[in-house]
């Protein structure tokens, strides 16, 4: 097909560069400089889709981002992007696009039957019709019928990036006003960013004002590009305006590398030069393909050298469309201008002008073929055959960003539109965005008399009649009107429909448009791909996992990794053919019978130092830190101010003024931050420094009856004969400088050996080599869980929750012994904290199968009924040869020996409450020969 | 997104900070009544106008500092160090 509507001369297209593209399976050509919209129209394609609700044939209302109709799906390789406005798609060779919301094609759409059922689909239809018995019965069918393009199902293969910039001056929009503002600022040396949504710089100068305007824009662009303090971002849509002059923009990049770039901008001053959008007129049949904004027709001629119709009718209530009419006439069209006003000072050479007349209806099915002209009373005066109707109901300044910035809008009678009023941030509007639109001499004509469907919102198929229904049913507030009719809620977010809609609502209820007001403008100004917002932080970067310093060593040992508290840790090291559970049991047995190696590097390590370190930790721990002697270690609980246990661990006194605080593996960052907050904000008199040293050290724990012999075999200058449980030594192990702590999470004699993180793999290799005679077994987190449950060692956040107090764990001894205050202490005296029926940590023994974590203890045996607590940890114990569990049970410690009923997924279990220590209750095995 | 001026690092985006809530709350001792303690734990001002908060330059230098912020306009009235008295603002 040839470009039948392309003019022989003019326009800002490169006629030497022919681009081939496909639309709905048909081949077309266009030129460099075209958009998909201008290229389709050059080929005479007006009908590009079906409407949202009624499936009416639709063409282009506008040819830019204000268009509410011409939505397309663009395919690039395997990637599909739905719901793009054809006017925003830059034409490129090989482009393939499809219409949406029609099957099989916009010409033959099976759902066009909706037009016949149209009287049913009026405002409030869904609310009224499908409430009974349940909306969900109808939802699927309705959603399939109404709606837009299909969301792509596969992974988005495109790459998106983020960029940050700050500037003295941000100018939004590079039309004549924006170029002038940018030059004024840039010439004073202001660091200036000029953002323009279009791929071309110049705005309305690209199509209006003749060669003078175009030359001025070109000169301004050239001067700006030569200035070192100016950045011009084209194809960049500023879509959000936030506090403190923070703005967000998306830049569409060329077809290589990342596809879009999200800009987060901070501007000293913002100038909005975003222009204005022409409004449609609301008359019957105003949605037929071939009916478009007068400015769109003018831009097609001026910028793209496309004559969208040979017999054109321009329908206006203001002066601006006279230029459009003249431009069409000069380009060779036969033009009649229908002006609703009795007279006008404007002129349009070569155009037949009718005053005091309106277009009251249109004819045509897939394309407009006539305009019915009537007087203001609705009496038909003539029928004008035509293939194009250009309409102008006035202009709406693009005030979206100004409104988002918090600025107030006011209704300007002179232009019959909303303009920026008082600003609350450093922002000003200039040009069309400020309402500077030249002489419009507009006379309001919100709804043209006559019968038939008069569309206000093309995107959502909202008619003037729908607004009347809403008013009749008392949805008079503009926010209610929007929600009841969906006015302004479509893909264009009401860019062409808001003012018409609220003015019609106002006319029906005796309110001036300014009194009706607008709905709130919210970001984004135009649709943004979710991928652009996510940027590069997807996949593994969405939440990066921390790897152990000896990660490669674990991989080589066949570890099965899982995430534990943000760390990618070995769960177990299964042999070939071994299940995870069997491997964990084997590993746990090895720790009880020989020697086990556990990588405890995620263990939190925080150094607390300074003259007041002991006083500080006395206020932090439930227990006492100041009485600890250097080289010794003590177990402690940390609470929050509500008295709730938030962390536990062993702390070591390294020197009089220095402690090493161990936290839970997931808690190090949180606890270090908390300690620092107390020091900086509350106890500013204490001379203490908190340093999180966790990532400096790798900690490999050797545990089991042979652990001491293994350590000796590794070679150490630490005197193992004088190294009892809960002591700390510094020395050398396997030739490496090391810190060794005798503490245990397994119940076996354990040596937690910390070396520089970089030495972790070397130490692990040495331990494995020297450990072979002792049956050394690497063990994972699963085995550690078995071992610690057998000993009743609690895991914070597993065996405790956000209500657990120290006494609930049987650990209130430290409170009673301590005279001084500590974090959370006062909360332990609250009436609720001393209730006798609190949930307390106990053990459970069952003769049946292993209890499920989360199984509830039934108080009266009935379900539903009152829960008396729940299982928190549960394993099959290899050491005991039976299932064991820990549980939080109401008044549990007073109920030792009681048999209770538990309930899990419809099945009841019996279990006996016991002390929460199942193995080596006296702790003999920890002593390792020391008395 | 607010722009906050860390006393050490200068103006930075809000995303580098976390808000620690109302500042100038006095911590009662262990002898406090249940009511006093509950007030300290749970009851906060929620003014329309200037509020005094403490903020943490979490992804920066780590400093805590005070901010006087207008809850309506989000205007930052002043930034002042921890331990300094509540400023008298207009
Ligand atoms: Zn800082």
Automatic annotation (TrEMBL), chain A:
Domain GCVT N-terminal: 551-815
Organism superkingdom: Bacteria
Span of domain FAD/NAD(P)-binding: 168-344
The keyword Oxidoreductase is assigned to this record: yes
Aminomethyltransferase C-terminal domain sequence ranges: 840-920
InterPro entries according to UniProt: 2Fe-2S-bd_N, BFD-like_2Fe2S-bd_dom_sf, FAD/NAD-bd_sf, FAD/NAD-binding_dom, GcvT/YgfZ/DmdA, GcvT/YgfZ_C, GcvT_C, GCVT_N
UniProt GO MF annotations: oxidoreductase activity
SoxA A3 domain location: 452-535
Keywords: Oxidoreductase
PANTHER family assigned: AMINOMETHYLTRANSFERASE, AMINOMETHYLTRANSFERASE, MITOCHONDRIAL
Sequence similarity: Belongs to the GcvT family.
Official protein name in the record: FAD-binding protein
Protein species of origin: Sphingobium algorifonticola
TrEMBL record, chain B:
Single GO BP term: tetrahydrofolate metabolic process
Top-rank taxon: Bacteria
Region Disordered, annotated ranges: 1-28
InterPro entries: SoxD, SoxD_sf
Entries under Pfam families matching the protein: SoxD (PF04267)
Molecular functions per Gene Ontology: sarcosine oxidase activity
NCBIfam families: soxD
Name of the molecule in the record: Sarcosine oxidase subunit delta family protein
Organism: Sphingobium algorifonticola
């Amino acid at each position: 097909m040839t470009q039948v509507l392309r003019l022989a001369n003019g326009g800002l297209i490169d006629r030497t560069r022919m681009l081939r593209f496909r639309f709905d399976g048909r081949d077309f050509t266009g030129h460099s400089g075209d958009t998909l919209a201008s290229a389709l129209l050059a080929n005479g394609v007006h009908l590009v889709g079906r409407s949202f609700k009624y499936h009416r044939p639709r063409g282009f209302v506008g040819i830019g981002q204000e268009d509410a109709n011409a939505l397309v799906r663009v395919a690039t390789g395997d990637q599909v992007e739905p719901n793009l406005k054809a006017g925003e798609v830059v034409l490129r060779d090989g482009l393939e696009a499809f219409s949406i919301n029609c099957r099989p094609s916009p010409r033959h759409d099976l759902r066009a039957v909706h037009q016949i059922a149209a009287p049913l689909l009026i405002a409030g239809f869904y609310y009224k019709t499908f409430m009974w018995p349940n909306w969900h019965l109808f939802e699927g069918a309705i959603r399939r019928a109404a709606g837009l393009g299909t969301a792509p199902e596969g992974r988005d293969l495109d790459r998106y990036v983020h960029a940050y910039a700050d500037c003295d001056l941000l100018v939004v929009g590079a039309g004549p006003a924006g170029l002038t503002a940018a030059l004024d600022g840039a010439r004073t040396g202001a660091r200036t960013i000029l953002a323009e949504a279009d791929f071309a710089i110049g705005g309305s100068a690209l199509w209006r004002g003749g060669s003078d305007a175009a030359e001025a824009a070109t000169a301004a662009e050239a001067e700006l590009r030569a200035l070192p303090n100016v950045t011009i971002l084209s194809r960049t849509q500023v879509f959000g305006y936030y506090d403190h002059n923070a703005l967000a923009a998306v830049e569409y990049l060329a077809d290589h590398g990342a596809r879009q770039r999200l800009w987060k901008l901070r501007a000293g001053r913002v100038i909005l030069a975003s222009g204005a959008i022409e409004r449609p007129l609301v008359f019957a049949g105003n949605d037929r393909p071939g009916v478009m904004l007068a400015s769109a027709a003018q831009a097609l001629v001026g910028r793209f050298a496309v004559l969208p119709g040979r017999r054109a009718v321009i329908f206006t209530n203001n002066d601006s469309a006279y230029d459009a009419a003249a431009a069409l006439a000069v380009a060779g069209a036969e033009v009649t201008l229908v002006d609703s006003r009795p007279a006008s000072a404007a002129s349009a050479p070569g155009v037949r002008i009718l005053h005091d007349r309106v277009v009251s209806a249109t004819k045509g099915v897939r394309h407009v073929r006539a305009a019915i002209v009537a007087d203001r009373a609705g009496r038909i005066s003539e029928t004008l055959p035509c293939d194009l109707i250009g309409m102008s109901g006035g202009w709406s300044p693009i005030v979206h960003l100004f409104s988002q910035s918090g600025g107030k809008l006011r209704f300007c009678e002179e232009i019959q539109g909303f303009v920026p009023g008082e600003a609350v941030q450093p922002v000003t509007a200039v040009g069309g965005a400020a309402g500077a639109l030249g002489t419009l001499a507009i006379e309001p004509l919100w709804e043209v008399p006559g019968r038939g469907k008069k569309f206000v919102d093309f995107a959502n198929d909202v008619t003037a009649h729908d607004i009347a229904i809403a008013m009749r049913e008392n949805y008079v507030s503009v926010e209610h009107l929007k929600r009841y009719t969906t006015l302004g809620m479509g893909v264009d977010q009401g860019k062409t429909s808001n003012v018409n809609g609220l003015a019609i609502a106002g006319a029906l209820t005796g309110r001036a448009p300014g009194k009706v007001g607008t709905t709130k403008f919210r970001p984004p100004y135009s649709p943004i791909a979710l991928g652009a917002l996510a940027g590069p932080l997807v996949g593994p970067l969405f939440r990066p996992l921390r790897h152990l310093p000896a990660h490669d060593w674990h991989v080589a040992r066949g570890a099965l990794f899982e995430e534990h508290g943000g760390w990618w840790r070995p769960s177990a090291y299964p042999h070939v053919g071994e299940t995870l559970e069997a491997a964990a049991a084997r590993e746990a047995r090895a720790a009880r019978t020989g020697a086990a190696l556990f990588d405890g590097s995620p263990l939190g390590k925080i150094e607390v130092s300074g003259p007041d370190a002991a006083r500080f930790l006395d206020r932090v721990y439930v227990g006492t830190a100041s009485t600890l002697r250097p080289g010794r270690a003590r177990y402690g609980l940390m609470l929050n101010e509500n008295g709730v246990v938030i962390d536990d661990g062993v702390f070591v006194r390294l020197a009089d003024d220095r402690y090493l605080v161990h936290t839970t593996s997931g808690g190090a960052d949180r606890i270090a931050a908390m300690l620092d907050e107390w020091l900086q904000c509350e106890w500013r008199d204490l001379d203490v420094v908190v340093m999180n040293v966790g990532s400096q050290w790798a900690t490999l724990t050797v545990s089991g009856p042979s652990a001491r012999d293994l350590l000796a075999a590794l070679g150490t200058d630490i005197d193992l004969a004088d190294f009892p449980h809960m002591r700390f030594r510094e020395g050398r192990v396997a030739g490496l400088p090391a810190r060794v702590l005798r503490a245990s999470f397994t119940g076996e004699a354990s040596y937690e050996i910390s070396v520089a993180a970089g030495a972790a793999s070397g130490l692990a290799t040495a331990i494995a080599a020297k450990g072979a005679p002792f049956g050394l077994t690497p063990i994972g987190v699963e085995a550690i869980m078995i071992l610690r449950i057998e000993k009743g060692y609690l895991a914070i956040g597993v065996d405790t929750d956000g209500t657990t107090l120290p006494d609930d764990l049987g650990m209130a001894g430290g409170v009673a012994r301590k005279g001084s205050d500590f974090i959370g202490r006062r909360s332990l005296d609250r009436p609720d904290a001393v209730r006798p029926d609190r949930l307390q940590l106990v053990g459970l023994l069952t003769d049946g199968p292993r209890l499920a974590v989360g199984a509830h203890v039934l108080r009266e045996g009935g379900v539903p009924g009152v829960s008396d607590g729940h299982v928190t940890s549960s394993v099959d114990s290899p050491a005991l040869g039976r299932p064991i569990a820990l549980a939080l049970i109401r008044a549990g410690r007073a109920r030792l020996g009681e048999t209770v009923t538990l309930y899990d997924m419809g099945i009841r279990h019996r279990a006996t409450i016991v002390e929460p220590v199942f193995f080596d209750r006296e702790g003999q095995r920890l002593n390792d020969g020391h008395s | 997104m607010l722009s906050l001026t860390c006393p050490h690092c200068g103006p930075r985006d809000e995303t580098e900070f976390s808000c620690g809530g109302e500042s100038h709350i006095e911590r009662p001792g262990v002898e406090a009544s249940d009511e006093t303690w509950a007030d300290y734990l749970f009851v906060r001002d929620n003014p329309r106008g200037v509020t005094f908060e403490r903020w943490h330059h979490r992804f920066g230098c780590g400093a805590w500092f005070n901010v006087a912020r207008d809850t309506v306009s989000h205007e930052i009235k002043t930034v002042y160090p921890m331990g300094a008295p509540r400023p008298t603002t207009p």
